[in-house]
Amino acid sequence: MDRQMILDYLKLAERHVANGTAHIERQRQIIAEVDRDGHPIGRSEELLAVFENSLTMHIAVRDRLLGELRESDSRANSSY
């Protein structure tokens, strides 16, 4: 994968991480509100777990892309 493609995918991955983080924060607020109102929170906690798992995967993709970018930059610098 060329450097520009990595950067494009990295930008998308960063957006996914940011959105995932926001979803998790909002879901935690929802859980607190639902619990405070005396309603069961099991389903809300299940959804939170889904969001957390998705975020973990997005972070892994982002980190892999960062590694590829470092390797790409290292190869480019060593060829001079």
What spatial form do the alpha-carbon principal axes imply? Answer: rod-shaped
Low-confidence stretches: none
Number of helices: 2
Q: Helix share of residues?
A: over 70%
Measured by DSSP, the beta-strand proportion falls in: under 5%
Termini separation (Å)? 20 Å
The mean pLDDT is 95
Reported for the largest beta sheet, the result is:
none
Secondary-structure element series: HH
Structural class: mainly alpha
What is the total tally of β strands? Answer: 0
Count of discrete domains: 1
Radius of gyration in whole Å, from Cα? Answer: 18 Å
Overview of this structure, please?
The protein is mainly α. It has one domain. Helices cover 89% and strands 0% of the residues. The protein has two helices and no strands. It has helices at 3-36, 42-78. The relative contact order is 0.17. The model has no long low-confidence stretch (mean pLDDT 95).
Short note summarizing the structure:
With 80 residues, the chain is mainly α.
Keywords:
mainly alpha; rod-shaped; 80 residues
How do the helices and strands line up, and which of them pair or pack?
Blueprint: H1 3-36, H2 42-78
Helix pairs in contact: 1-2
